[in-house]
Amino acid sequence: MELTTVPEFPKILERFEAWWQCEIIDRPLVSLSAARQREPRNKPPERTYPTLRDRWLDVEYQLDCTEANLDGRVFVGDTFPSYDPGVGPEICATCYGCELEFSPGTTWAIPIVQTCQDVLKLTCDLNAFYWNWLRASTDASLERGRGKWITGLTDMHTNGDLLASLLDPQQLALLYADDPKGIDAACDHVRDDFALMYDDIYDRIAAAGQPSTSWTPTLYAGKSFVLQCDFICMISPADFQRTILPMLDYEIAHLERSIYHLDGPGALVHLDALLETDLNAIQWVFGAGQGNARDWIDVYKRIQAAGKGVQIFADDFAEAKLLAEHLKPEGVWLCMGKQFQPDEADAILNWAQRWAAGME
């Protein structure tokens, strides 16, 4: 596949495949934000909406905003233009009957049940309103973005996060203490629906000849996804391994490539269990107020020692070079946190190639 905005896109796809395998073609992955070449030629039209929900659901407006944002941007390193349609990460809960609460920047599902037994009465309906909207939005993006951007899979909170959406996170945590057998049954009940939902959107993207990507801009020619369960910071390692891990194992097995979004220090107690799975990579997000990437070198080293790839968010070039002193270039994906001028970006990419060649 080719993109008019990124002539080197086929090479980027190759580098990502090497990264998934903890290998290197010419250098590790480096994602950079470059200074805009020029201001967009067209800006989205000014529109007013009766409600936030109406604004969120205006597919053409969302695509206008995407096109304006991408116009004039320079894509360097392993960065590429993409757009993943969505109405927030809890859209999967709407297939079971939840409504969404809309805010300017995100949405969340309004819980509809109180017990695990109630969960067992729910079924996943992909003809629900918001899922049909997602289908139409994905199709529209594939058509309008042909040759210009990659259409990604929407953010999907499945497994334990899906149960937290249906029940409310606090209620789910209480049920872990009050009804552990019910929790086991609820997990089994929703587990297989991941494949149903994932394939419904992935098949559209694959039919258009595009690789898979998502809100974390990985690339793969087949089935890939960023998996997550933010709820795990509220449960013990034993509960995680009994209830959440089997659902994650099912999701991993359904995919060909997978990266796990490990969110916050409270989730680190589950890292060893995750490293024993067939995940390809870990995205470690330490969060605001938790230091910098350089403060978590031991975590990155644990991930590499387990044979997994790692996505690292480095503040700047100096931090990237410091991290390189402690890590192997194989399996590293550096995501740089500031905007760079073209000469700065070239210097970083040249350094990454020297690092891979053992010259740094």
Automatic annotation (TrEMBL):
Gene3D superfamilies: 3.20.20.210. This is Trimethylamine corrinoid protein 2. The lineage of its organism: unclassified sequences, metagenomes, ecological metagenomes. InterPro entries: UROD/MetE-like_sf.
